[in-house]
Design goal:
Elements: H1 10-13, H2 24-27, H3 34-41, H4 46-50, H5 54-73, H6 80-107, H7 129-145, H8 151-155, H9 158-179, H10 186-192
Helix pairs in contact: 3-6, 5-6
């Protein structure tokens, strides 16, 4: 029982390959207002929701609420100024991040659900920064509660954390330019086809 191979018909051969098609919603510009996104970003989570990032909006609201409650719990403590500065910085971050995401959507660039919270293509994205940070903060607060190490003695060195974060960011910026080739935007790749 042998079957002969028959060539596909013309209409079948001309059909586009579904695995090579781009997502039309990701490459088409969306009519959003970056200014409105910025203003809505001042309300925790709402700027991300405006940009269609619902889970990210929930994460923003939860983080903001946790920072407020931690700052309230550390009332008149050594950690209060640091927690208040983190809360103000995160508050500003939400608005600017909503603005930049709206600009990307307006340009027709694809935006991931957790863009800017999780770096998808960077070298450091493999490091579990969030869990390690939570563990370190938990250990510091536990040691302070047990009176092993007074938090106010450690809190005076918080500028060192800013210096380390700046060095890591600078290193990533300088080293990523030589490792990662620039990717063409979806608009350029659609023009080539």
């Amino acid at each position: 029982m042998s079957t002969a191979y028959t060539a596909p018909s013309e209409s079948f051969a001309a059909a586009p390959n579904p695995y090579r098609q781009t997502n039309p919603s990701a490459s088409m510009p969306v009519h959003t207002s970056p200014g409105l996104a910025f203003l809505l970003g001042l309300i925790p989570g709402v700027g991300a929701i405006y940009n269609g990032q619902y889970l990210k909006g929930l994460v923003h609201a939860v983080i903001f609420g946790l920072l407020i409650s931690l700052a309230n719990a550390a009332e008149n403590g050594a950690g209060e100024p640091m927690l208040i500065m983190m809360t103000v910085g995160f508050y500003a971050y939400m608005a600017f991040e909503a603005y930049h995401t709206a600009k990307k959507r307006q340009a027709g660039l694809p935006v991931e659900e957790f863009s800017s919270l999780i770096a998808p293509n960077r070298y450091m994205s493999r490091a579990p920064v969030g869990p390690v940070l939570l563990i370190v903060l938990g250990v510091l607060f536990l040691l302070d509660t047990l009176r092993v190490i007074e938090f106010r003695d450690l809190a005076r060195f918080w500028p060192v954390l800013l210096i380390i974060a700046g060095i890591v960011m600078l290193y990533n910026r300088l080293s990523s330019g030589s490792r990662i080739a620039p990717q063409p935007s979806p608009m350029e790749s659609s023009r080539e086809q």
